[in-house]
Amino acid sequence: MRNLYLHLDGSLPAPPGWECGTSGWQGLQLLQQHGFAVAIVELPIVGMSPEDWLGAALRLRPALRVIFLGRHVREAVALLRSGASDYVESRDAALASAARLPAPPPRAPEPWRRLLIGDSAAMRPVLDTIRLLGPRRSTVLISGETGTGKEVVAKAIHAASLRAREAMVSVNCTALPEALLEAELFGHVKGAYTGAFQARKGRFEEADKGTIFLDEIGDMPIETQAKLLRVLQERECQRLGSSEMVKLDVRVVSATNANLEERIDRGRFREDLYYRLNVVPLLLPPLRERAEDIPMLLEHFVDKVCRAEELPRKRVTADALERLQEYGWPGNVRQLENTVERAVALSGDRPMLHFGDFSLPVRTSVSGNVSPPAPQPESAPNLPEQGLDFTATIQRLERTLIEQALRRSNGNKKQAADMLRLKRTTLSAKLKSLDEVA
User: Fold this and answer.
1) Of 136-150, 190-204, 258-272, which range is least confident?
2) Which of 68-72, 174-178, 345-349 comes out lowest in average pLDDT?
3) pTM of the complete model beyond 0.90
4) Do 300 and 198 share a domain, yes or no?
5) Same domain membership, residue 149 and residue 230
6) Which domain, by its residues, includes 431?
7) What is the mean pLDDT of residues 104-133?
8) Parallel, antiparallel, or unpaired for β 65-69 and 86-88?
9) Residue 226 and residue 433: Cα distance in Å, rounded?
């Protein structure tokens, strides 16, 4: 495993087996990207104090061993008390100290990590950002395409925070009529408007000491945006019909699939509110950019559906898995989950899920380009010069035809058997045989 060597003089090569950084921010970026076990840091650090750098580094990698290289006793005492592993005066002493350090114990998974499936390169910046800002109060703006899992990420941020034992309150800004949204957010007193028969707390008050998640914030009416801005600035709100101000201690996480900067240009979103919400931006990658996570997501969703339906556990064939990873998933993770639920239903009693069970309307490549479905096999294929595996070829042809028939019949085996001019019992036997060799 490579380790990190951070020093001011970029002309000095890092020791063999060490990754070199020349500023504090660059060192933290490298820590986000790599699982370093040890960091040697020559002081001074460019861009921040050693205490600030150490705190940020340990939030990113709690098991990281940090050795500082300097010449000040008071500084050494402060850093060792703050969590540094050692403080030495020479490069040779630092390398010797690193060699003596025991390997860090495996890090126990954080509770919030169970909410997020996948560890692809595209997801690691998201995971590292959640880990870094978890203990902070910072306002977060999550952006990304529809179906990328913005609410799940908001729940992970709340679970990673010091507010995890308090409430997380979610509000969909498009689900409520404009006339009711303000009362929903900030509450009202009795008689504040027609139908307000009793006083009620708003969602912000309900989330006090916890987290409020404002989904589809880009669709919030411009008048309500002005009042939300005041809440963010003053950390207090006012119920409709009341002159009393209610103090708030709440973390705000919002999400959008819209381009808020474009909405600002069109006068549909307040620029000052945008900067208040966008303190920590978090961009979620679309599923097509994290195809290596699809096997884990498939296993998770298949198990989830099978448990809910009280079915024996099913598995996905290797061929289906490969083709599902090639698909572009325009609806992202939400589309994948819905497709898995349909596939489990269409598979009947079969223990294996084939590509045809997933009933994808078109084949979309990971680049996002839509192409026609895969070409159908010829009725009389040509024999290659080098020959072929006859049994495997016939099995592939049978599987392809059966998958097409099941897809067209929405999983009805009787109809599928009629399309293939087979008895239903013969079709079932072929399905079982193909499952055994999958």
Assistant:
1) 190-204
2) 174-178
3) no
4) no
5) yes
6) 375-438
7) 84
8) parallel
9) 65
